[in-house]
C-alpha cells in the first residue's frame, strides 16, 4: 500500500552542518510544549565522523538518545547519509581500497562534492554489499531511525567509464540493486527518500525522490 507523505522538520535548512545535540535538545524541548503538525524530525549532515565512517563524531555520541526522545514525543526519527561516498581520509577508504569503484583504466571514480574529491564505493562488491546492509540495519533497528534521506546517490552511475566489480552489471542495474539492498535492510515500513539520483531506475523501491536547486554537484559561477 502507498504510504502517506510525511511532513519533515529538517535540520539542514536552518543549521546546515553546524547542527548540534544542544540545538536538537532546544528544538525538542519546544516541540514537547508546542506540538507542531510535522511527522518527522530529521538529523541531516552533521553527525558522522566522515563520509564513509558512519559512526557518531565526538559531538554526537548522544545520537541514539536523541532518536529515542524524538520517538517518545510521537515523531518519527530521520537521518541523513550518503551511502556510496567516502572521504579521502575515511577509514573505509584507507583500509579497504579494494572496495572502491574504478574506471576502465583502473583509476578510482571520484565525485566532487562539498569542495572534496570523494571516492565512491562499488555497490556490486560483496563486502560493500555487506557493509551497506549492516549500516542500514543498525541505523534502523538499533538506533531507531525509520526515515532515511540518502544523498549524492548518482555517484555510482554518473561516469560512463565505470567498470564494476561485477562485470555483468550495467550502471542502472548496479544502482537499482544497491537501493533494493538498502530497502531490504530498513524494511518496507521505513520511509526512503533519495536525493540526487536517477529517477526512473528507482520506481517501486523508494518512497520519494527529492529534487531542487542544490542537487547538482557544481553550478557555473
Can you offer a commentary on this structure?
By secondary structure, the protein is α/β, with parallel strands linked by helices. It is built from 6 helices and 13 strands. Strands 1-2-5-10-12-13 form a 6-stranded parallel sheet. A 3-stranded antiparallel sheet has the order 6-9-8, with no helix packed on it. Strands 3-4 form a two-stranded antiparallel sheet. Strand 8 and strand 9 (116-120) form a beta hairpin. The longest helix has 17 residues, at 126-142. The radius of gyration is 17 Å and the shape is globular. The model has no long low-confidence stretch (mean pLDDT 93).
Structural key phrases:
single chain, alpha/beta, 6-stranded parallel beta sheet, 13 strands, 21% strand
| Percent range for β-strand residues | 15-25%
Structural class: alpha/beta
Distance between the termini: 44 Å
Mean pLDDT: 93
**Largest beta sheet: what is the strand line-up?**
1-2-5-10-12-13
Rg result: 17 Å
Number of helices: 6
Quaternary structure annotation: single chain
Please tally the β strands and state the result.
Answer: 13
- What form results from the Cα inertia axes? globular
Poorly predicted runs of 5 or more residues:
none
Helix content: 25-40%
Largest pleated sheet: 6 strands, parallel
Series of secondary-structure elements, N-terminal to C-terminal: EHHEEEHEEHEEEHEEHEE
Amino acid at each position: 500500500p502507498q504510504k502517506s507523505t510525511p511532513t519533515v522538520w529538517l535540520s539542514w535548512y536552518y543549521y546546515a552542518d553546524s547542527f548540534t545535540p544542544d540545538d536538537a535538545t532546544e528544538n525538542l524541548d519546544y516541540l514537547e510544549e508546542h506540538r507542531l503538525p510535522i511527522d518527522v524530525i530529521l538529523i541531516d549532515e552533521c553527525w558522522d565522523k566522515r563520509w564513509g565512517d558512519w559512526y557518531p563524531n565526538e559531538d554526537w555520541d548522544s545520537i541514539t538518545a536523541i532518536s529515542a526522545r524524538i520517538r517518545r514525543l510521537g515523531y518519527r526519527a530521520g537521518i541523513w547519509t550518503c551511502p556510496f561516498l567516502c572521504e579521502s581520509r575515511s577509514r573505509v577508504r584507507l583500509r579497504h581500497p579494494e572496495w572502491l569503484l574504478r574506471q576502465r583504466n583502473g583509476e578510482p571514480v571520484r565525485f566532487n562534492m562539498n569542495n572534496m574529491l570523494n571516492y565512491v564505493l562499488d555497490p556490486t562488491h560483496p563486502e560493500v554489499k555487506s557493509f551497506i546492509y549492516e549500516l542500514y540495519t543498525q541505523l534502523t533497528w538499533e538506533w531507531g531511525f525509520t526515515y532515511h534521506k540518502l544523498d549524492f546517490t548518482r555517484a555510482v552511475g554518473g561516469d560512463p567509464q565505470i567498470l564494476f566489480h561485477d562485470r555483468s552489471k550495467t550502471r542502472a542495474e548496479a544502482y537499482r540493486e544497491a537501493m533494493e539492498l538498502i530497502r531490504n535492510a530498513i524494511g518496507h515500513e521505513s520511509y526512503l527518500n533519495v536525493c540526487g539520483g536517477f529517477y526512473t531506475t528507482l520506481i517501486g523501491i523508494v518512497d520519494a525522490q527529492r529534487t531542487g536547486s542544490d542537487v547538482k554537484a557544481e553550478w557555473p559561477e
